[in-house]
Design goal:
Helix content is 73%, strand content 0%. The chain contains 22 helices and no strands.
Length: 445
């Protein structure tokens, strides 16, 4: 168990008033937003490049958004008129379509607004980060965590330079986590309904939210049951809310493609993309219809659903015939997601020259996070469990398919909270040790 002195120290340092907390949160968000916007001002021209018909402005999201604005519906995710799609979940493409509608399809203003909105989502994430840390570890750690997120390099870079659902997904994932840890003591139905609706909306933004939301909900449900409170109705309320939120999209997909497609259609391609003989990079070029003419032609000829199904079978065939290689590649993906390391080969470093610096930062963050998790476990296993659930379940799909440098970003806030707890508790312990020295000297005298 954590020392009682540490817990007392953390509790004794709670800020005095809610007004102080609001003021601190306000400045965290403002500083985080300004910092991201400043970085964005240097990086946004890359997203306005007309190369490949403005592919860098949102990729598939941009293509679908353009089709929506042009009255063609949720369709055409790549380079031609290929018809309705379920390539992506709907929330971000529709959000980007709203920007295109107001500021122009693939206009420079649209790129700036989309990036600014991503920066805002990332800055607002300071708020749930603060309250997660405060709920579990006290206000001093909450201040550490909130400011750490404001200056967090991944949060800054991926919001200021990447037009995708990543920062919105991160905000929603963090809110889902925050709601779940409060639901452990709530037997009221409506907070559980809100959790279910938020989880469903997160799944429609990025299905990876649903890799952890049901397990966090189940843990909170179990905790409610163990406490002897009413638990059946709250849990059923959450399940019903999720179902109501996601059902329209599921029904649309079934009516369009005559097949059950829960969130996205391209899981089969992800399996194929990450499991082949070309492993010099975690995302080797030439296996995706966006960068390979033969794949693009095959996509057009077969149609989206048949194409992704074919890719799934090709990927599985490769795995079945190269099982030891698949185990090796899976282990490499695990290492990459936790440390940032993939390879030090000359070819790889030419493609990813910043990787040595990223490895140092990512590995250091992981070490601090694990130290914080160990302290949390010693403090209270019930506090540690939601983080363990996230770290275990979230990356499984990426271990088995393939990783990208931005895939882990939605759970970065949990890393930041635990790393902040490790640092804050260490600082508190040092203060206690220093304060105890004069007392010991006085006792001896």
């Amino acid at each position: 168990m954590a020392s009682s002195e540490t817990a007392t120290e953390l509790a004794a340092n709670e800020p005095g008033t809610a007004a102080n907390a609001r003021r601190s949160l306000f400045w965290m968000v403002v500083v985080a937003l300004l910092l991201r916007l400043v970085v964005m001002s240097f990086l946004y021209p890359e997203r306005t490049d007309p190369y490949r018909d403005h592919w860098r402005l949102g990729g598939e999201s941009g293509r679908i958004a353009r089709s929506i604005v042009q009255g063609e519906g949720f369709s055409n995710p790549l380079f031609g008129k290929t018809g309705p799609t379920a390539w992506l979940a709907p929330v971000f493409p529709y959000l980007l379509a709203g920007i295109f509608k107001i500021f122009g399809i693939y206009g420079n203003a649209s790129a700036v607004v989309a990036l600014a909105l991503d920066c805002l989502f990332s800055a607002l994430t300071c708020i749930p980060v603060y309250f997660i840390a405060k709920k579990h570890f006290g206000a001093p750690t909450a201040v550490w965590a909130g400011w750490a997120w404001a200056f967090f390099p991944y949060g800054i870079y991926f919001s200021a330079d990447f037009i995708w659902a990543t920062t919105l997904t991160t905000l929603l994932m963090t809110l889902v986590f925050l709601c779940a840890i409060y639901l452990e003591t709530s037997s009221s139905v409506w907070p559980w309904v809100g959790f279910g609706a938020l989880s469903g909306f997160g799944g429609l933004t990025d299905p990876v939210v649903m890799s952890v939301a049901p397990f966090l909900g189940a843990w909170a449900w179990y905790r409610l049951y163990k406490s002897g409170r009413r638990w059946v109705a709250p849990g059923l309320g959450a399940v019903l809310a999720v179902t109501l939120v996601v059902s329209p999209w599921f029904i649309r997909n079934y009516e369009t493609f005559h097949k059950v497609i829960p969130f996205r259609s391209c899981l089969g391609l992800e399996v194929y993309f990450g499991n082949n003989a070309d492993s010099w990079h975690w995302g080797p070029p030439g296996y995706h219809p966006s960068d390979n003419e033969n794949e693009w032609r095959e996509y057009q000829e077969l149609g989206e659903i048949a194409y992704t199904s074919k890719k799934f079978h090709e990927g599985m065939a490769f795995i079945n015939s190269h099982r030891l290689l698949y185990v090796e590649q899976t282990l490499r993906r695990v290492v990459y997601l936790w440390t940032g390391f993939w390879s030090f080969s000359h070819r790889y470093l030419q493609e990813e020259p910043a990787d040595p610096f990223n490895i140092v930062f990512c590995t250091g963050l992981t070490v601090l996070t694990l130290m914080g998790l160990r302290r949390a476990w010693r403090l209270d296993t019930n506090i540690a469990m939601p983080y363990i659930i996230v770290f275990f379940f979230f990356p499984i799909v990426y271990y088995l398919t393939h990783p990208e440098d931005y895939y882990r970003r939605p759970i970065d806030p949990q890393y930041v909270v635990l790393a902040a707890f490790a640092v804050a508790s260490w600082v508190a312990e040092r203060k206690l040790r220093r304060a105890s020295i004069p007392l010991k000297v006085a006792t001896i005298e």
